[in-house]
Amino acid sequence: MNNIAEDSESGTDGLFIRYLYTTKGSCGEVRSMLYLCEDLNYCSNKDATTLKKSVINISLALQKLIDKLKKKRQMAV
């Protein structure tokens, strides 16, 4: 979320899209850490699965926003 907030001030869709991709990458990192937490028994399988599903949904929503912004940029050209 900080990646998105940081670039919302840039004023350009291109930079904003770049930060959205960075944020999607962070979602992947979080999922990776959830697998590790699960393997080390820091959290239950149930909790890890619930959180991983949430992170996947966030990543999908980010991709939809990226696609929408890219389409908007293409239409402006």
TrEMBL record:
InterPro entries: 23S_rRNA-intervening_sequence, 23S_rRNA_IVS_sf. It holds the Pfam family 23S_rRNA_IVP. Coiled coil: none annotated. NCBIfam families: four helix bundle protein (TIGR02436). This is Four helix bundle protein. It comes from Microbacter margulisiae.
